[in-house]
What does this fold into?
Amino acid sequence: MADVKIATQEFNFYYGNFKALKNINIGIEKNKVTALIGPSGCGKSTFLRSLNRMNDVILGARVEGTVAIDGQNIYDRGIDVVGLRRRVGMVFQKSNPFPKSIFDNVAYGLRINGERDKAKIVKQVEQSLKDSALWDEVQDRLNDSAMDLSGGQQQRLCIARALAVQPEVILMDEPASALDPIATQKIEELIFKLKEKYTLVIVTHNMQQAARVSDYTAFFYLGELIEFGKTDQIFTRPKLKRTEDYVTGRFG
It folds into this structure.
């Protein structure tokens, strides 16, 4: 049996009366990259944000079924949502560095989680910047504003910020869609490397990107999980015609 990190059972998600996700059953493996693909509005981002309860803030949002991480349903009463989001980090489509120094951006999560040991913070900031493949580019300018970085560097800084609190899972919502090809390649190389330490779930509109970086691919359509499997199988031998039509560009 594969080492499953996240498992959903009969998971439904509603925005008010609208059922955005319908009976999602999936097992996401530890230390693998799982890509979520499908046309716009099909539920990919809603599903991604369900994995760390980011949707809780939306008025009228409610769930049915379970999302279990290491066997525990994250929607159980009494779950510490702040603690959950420490374990399950998030990187958004648009890089969103804080208007602070590069160092303070990465240290932010450590400080709000109560870390006061300066030596530990310095060490963790350096490690997170190394893990996000940014250290060599910024080590001499840690006190400069994060806003002075390029778009690709800002996105890697946001990844470093997510890594600093040592999560187990990293969620990425179209992490490279706003970047040029060179910056995109760096993010993709980084994703490949990060799975040594983390479980990654990525939403992408880019079929080639999903094929390049992921181990598993889940195809969503109209709120349903149509097909899920190893990436090479989904792209070369899909079981369903609807999957084949989507990955070959016949619709979407």
